[in-house]
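Morning - pyridoxal-5'-phosphate inputs below, output right after.
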Amino acid sequence: MTDRVYLDWNAGAPMRASVVARLWDSLGRTGNASSVHEEGRRARAAVEAARRSVAALVGANPRGVTFTSGGTESAVTVLAPQWFHGGRPLAFDRLLVSAVEHPAVARGGRFPADAVETVPVDRDGVVDLGALDGRLAALAANGRRALVSLMLANNETGVIQPVAEAARIAHGHGAMLHTDAVQAVGRIPVDAGALGADVLTLSAHKIGGPQGVGAIVRANDLVAVPPLLTGGGQEGQARAGTENTWGIEGFGVAATEAAHDLKAMAAVAERRDRIEAAVLDAAPEAVVFGAGAARLPNTLAVAVPGLSAETALIAFDLAGVALSSGSACSSGKVAASAVLLVMGVPTDLARCALRISIGPATTDADVARFAEVFKKVHADLTKRRGSRAA
Ligand code: PLP
């Protein structure tokens, strides 16, 4: 495994050594965080320390953090047709989601399907703020209120959305805004106050924490989201079920380190740019998606016309390089990426999309190895296509 090159950080970042060490340590400890005895109090202290670390990563109040089983559960919980505001029920008639949301959001959470509307994006995959404004104005004119869900950064293209502007627009029409910040944290600075989103959602495994842990962060302390899981009163009644103490501890450690990773992002961006340059050097016909927009420093979505992603991925894998096609969560699926299609990418080209996503541990040697393998895979597949056509 050691000489493999892992370039699929957006699917899941490698677990940090410090997180693994903490997990080993805490797995041997007994205690339910709701118990009053010493073991329970120790578990509670560990959960609360993690809550402070996760809150600090996004500049929020720890009281606003609810731990969940991941980004998906967080999103589905938040996308509810009724919240509370200042303790009073706040009903949403519509859910407006951008056309490039992750399926965890695009499916509409707890909204009925006919109450979910899609806001278009431009050719770079950036949401059309004019369309959002127009739709919210029309709803408000009819006495209807919306919840808006706009991701901070896209998992496939890395394109960063204008969430602060969208939040201003939403609030101007009496709407509320959730942002799926799963791919953004640890890669770009995320300050809940500056963003103006009412609620953010996060996932531990994208920042080198354990899989199966996430968080809902209420940035607006007037709002409350009704629990998805009901039962016991854990997490301040916001999410029933015994806390996953070990996973939460690991999330806390990863959150603290992810905040420091921001200093390494210039170097990450430089390596990503070298990967992009290597692709364009070997295949000048390649198309980089979202190139005209602000992107995460670690993500490259690119397609070489005629070079099917399915075939290329297998060739890369056999050569020891792990990368992805389209959406991370849909690997194994060969359908063209829905995100690229709504950006106006033709289906044939979308089927050729490769996603390369890296992190602070990606080395110059990894970049060089990718470049070498890409050149070979491109040459081999182009030759094979040529001989088939002949
Ligand atoms: N949102 C985005 C943007 C994602 O990329 C993902 C996972 O890939 C999720 C949500 C879902 O997170 P989780 O895997 O923790 O359920």
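Note: The first strand starts at residue 5 and ends at 6.

O.
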